Amino acid sequence: xxxxxxxxxxxxxxxxxxxxxxxxxxxxxxxxxxxxxxxxxxxxxxxxxxxxxxxxxxxxxxxxxxxxxxxxxxxxxxxxxxxxxxxxxxxxxxxxxxxxxxxxxxxxxxxxxxxxxxxxxxxxxxxxxxxxxxxxxxxxxxxxxxxxxxxxxxxxxxxxxxxxxxxxxxxxxxxxxxxxxxxxxxxxxxxxxxxxxxxxxxxxxxxxxxxxxxxxxxxxxxxxxxxxxxxxxxxxxxxxxxxxxxxxxxxxxxxxxxxxxxxxxxxxxxxxxxxxxxxxxxxxxxxxxxxxxxxxxxxxxxxxxxxxxxxxxxxxxxxxxxxxxxxxxxxxxxxxxxxxxxxxxxxxxxxxxxxxxxxxxxxxxxxxxxxxxxxxxxxxxxxxxxxxxxxxxxxxxxxxxxxxxxxxxxxxxxxxxxx
Length: 419
Description:
The protein has helices at residues 2-23, 388-418, and strands at 43-44, 53-59, 69-71, 74-78, 83-88, 94-99, 111-113, 116-120, 125-130, 136-141, 151-153, 156-160, 165-170, 176-181, 191-193, 196-200, 205-210, 216-221, 231-233, 236-240, 245-250, 256-261, 271-273, 276-280, 290-295, 301-306, 316-318, 321-325, 330-335, 341-346, 356-358, 361-365, 370-375, 382-383, 386-387. The chain is mainly β. The strands form nine sheets. The chain has a five-stranded mixed β-sheet, with no helix packed on it. The protein has a four-stranded antiparallel β-sheet with strand order 2-33-32-31, with no helix packed on it. Mean pLDDT is 89; it is low at 8-24 and 379-392.
């Protein structure tokens, strides 16, 4: 009897975690900021989207330049009409929508931290909203428009402005801690790694600042404007420039390790994964309209994939899949090893939004006003409308009750024998 009861309880303990795992998303399934993380490596170990089925699309009624943020099954994104959206990432249903009181374009991608949302606007303000309700917590005014996407690290918000400054704000209060002035506007979105802030400026320089004080540690001059945002991986800074080069710099000293020249501007930001760099290039009037894969150690080209127009979108990498949007209106899924096309999805307008990947779904926005969820059509994690987590709890409950009855039956039989 004891063996049977032990077996039942063991079975319950083994099966329940399976339901918990199925019913909830892991931290790795989150894409909480532009380029996934503070290093901006653009990589996630979540399940890839191996097909391009339209799981859902959501019409905002306005063009969208921002990139999606995915946290705990919710999608956050802003539109160029100044509206902020919180959607159910599973089905695209609306959780809440707010429009900024000082209505303006928002192409800055949202950063999520501690149930708060952070982003900049063309009206010059940096905003902090409550992630659950959309209520404004604070708004900090800079002196010009903001297109840079914020990084939130250690209770601080780092973001660039067209006034030429990189700002460090207190994440809770919005008060300025410091600002660093460059020689031109800052579109580049900062990466924050090991207490240093890395970003580019239209003054043609890549900067490294002390994250605590804002003091300059080093700068590296390119030949033209930088809109690309850096990826900082394994002690190196990778970034593109409108001088048609992709640069690899030493993260500690700023010394150039290599540069790789292509035939067009590089406004796209790199993904750096497993020793390879993936980045887009090109503008509408230039023949170089490619997504490139380079050797991250040497800068040598491994492969290139040509699109029908420039690539401003920044690649996302999951497993052996590379996802990127094109100004030609297509979403591309490429083989990370050889660059071969796996699938294409066509929207009705330009794409400069960058993809976010979570749990087998790639999320991206288009200038055709829509947010798209593309991926594999899977069986819903439910049975006859009942969530699998609830089913698991019911099974465990039944097993425990059965065990209790068995114990009682066993006790009664022992009492009868003793009499």
